[in-house]
Amino acid sequence: MTPETLDLARLQFALTAGGHFLFVALTLGLATVVACLQTVATIGRRPLPARMVRFWGQLYVINYAVGIVTGLVMEFQFGLSWSGLTHYAGNVFGASLAVETIVAFFVESTFLGLWIFGWHRFNRWVHLAMIWIVALTAYLSAYWILVSNGFLNNPVGHRAEGGELVLDDAGALLTNPNALLAFGHVAGGALLTAGFFMAGVSAYHLFRRTSEWEFFGRSLRIGVFLSFPALMFTAVFGGIQFAAMQPMKSAVFSAKSAEIARIQAEMAARFGPGDYVPPESWTRGAGLIMLIAFALMMYFSLAGVVLACFKKVVFRFRLWHLALMTAVPLPYLAMISGWVFREAGRQPWVVYGLLKTEDAVSGHSPGAMRASLITFTTLFALLAAVNGWLIVRHARKGPVDAGLGHDDRTDRKNPADSLPATSY
Hints:
Blueprint: H1 3-44, H2 47-81, H3 83-117, H4 124-153, E1 158-161, E2 164-167, H5 170-174, H6 177-207, H7 213-243, H8 247-254, H9 257-271, H10 280-307, H11 311-316, H12 318-326, H13 329-344, E3 349-351, E4 355-356, H14 357-360, H15 366-397
Antiparallel strand pairs: 1-2, 3-4
């Protein structure tokens, strides 16, 4: 294995994992919002919440469909580029990845398909149960992924056997504090992303003086009032993780040179000669960007909670509408920088204290890794472009009669003889 192969493999995984995570956050958040909206629509049987389910549900389905493909592509890399990791620790962290695959593909995807095609075919309570199963299994899927990632950051519940790690304590693995804290942080970030997304899309239509003013006024308020508590929830779990992070990562982020030197000496004495300082520019820079994005979102959320209390402001304050549109990327910026901070700060370890990154990469030639990087990056760029185009296209169209939940039977019957397509 050459240093160039290692650098290319790390870059490839960073791009694909980070790209996939962008889809995951919006999918988790919108699934929760759509499930809550459908609960209101089912209980109250009012047209407006039902139309909101269809519109925001359509955007959720688009993001989910493309995101699931990026997840498949990303997981190929464990066997392709990181055979040392799978051989050494696959018996432990691979089990949770396998469970996640079963949950995501055999449960979540099945019930999502039933929800998409089950409109006007199932009882409204059964249809509601389906979207809640989808939402809950989405969070369960995220939990299993973070169990694997938590093990890499804080390896617990294992023992060494024949030069490999095997599962020794499933309870310790499943309750790993690193995984649980990260799960709370990701769950809050997903709701935050959905809140900013809903507010931004709604602000776009209100800025253009849409005829659907009531629809998007209600949606904007939901997005704004969701964002602030979600931000606080995310910040709490993030703060706890700051207090419990690896000593070297903490020292690098705080730029404590003496502390860095002390920990480097301790780790060299414990693990042998080597550089145990993570890339300082990436670690410190990503952490600072994450905190700056958090501060900006705090200002937007606080101002939004106040402004959304006034009906005239919601519909007429066009400067605020512009601000909400420009703020949509902020949660994404915070998430990507936070992911870089979490993963880059663990270096040079892929399994902290047990397996170095340089020992985990497959023995491909630089040319093979370069070809793989180009292929994966091109595929991800195309998927991201398609997803962005579809979401923008459907978001700009606004709520329409065609699409998700539309009942074709109303086109062949007298409308007076049928329930409206938005009824539950």
